[in-house]
């Protein structure tokens, strides 16, 4: 477990997973063991969304790849690259066509092994700033590699009437619960605000969209995504790919608590 501290903030990170973020003692992150989800954050890469209705196969320029829901990155282990008092960098690497054990098999999937026909390196960094916690993702690998990226953090809810403000509208918890597992799409925006006991502004760079998901009233996943998977049929998930055309592609998420505003 690593703790980043400074500027009235503490971020707790366990093997690359953000398990706590507090400002002046207020916890923003869903705690493991609480109802709702067994994790507190994860990434969706190189695909986002369900693949079971497409026989767990996703079309790529190098042929069909066997992927389970939200991709295989979550099956890999992070390695710590560097750490200071206010910043830590973690990394996962993958060699093309390496078979990876699927943790959903056999209880929730028929596919025991997953694979991707491209090499990649995936870095995740956390940094405390005066405005809040900055989370940066750096994707590098084979040129022309297709991919999607989603970040899947879960936020702890402290009141019975939380809402998410998006531009000129507000989305309440019953609306999100009603959508179920598909998750509610919030498209064409790089920022939203969680209105709860303490407000949290979430600003992104590179993603372009969000999904909102929960099945319980005590937590809410606010997920920056590069593609909303239900915008295409299960067989056509590949239409949501972007292509790696540069040495490294950066995506950022800024958690900006209202408590830090001057």
Automatic annotation (TrEMBL):
GO terms for molecular function: carbohydrate binding; isomerase activity. SUPFAM superfamilies: Galactose mutarotase-like. Monomer. Signal peptide: none annotated. This is Aldose 1-epimerase. InterPro entries: Aldose_1/G6P_1-epimerase, Gal_mutarotase_sf_dom, GH-type_carb-bd. The keyword Calcium applies. GO terms for biological process: carbohydrate metabolic process. Keywords: Calcium. It comes from the Bacteria. Its cofactor is Ca(2+).
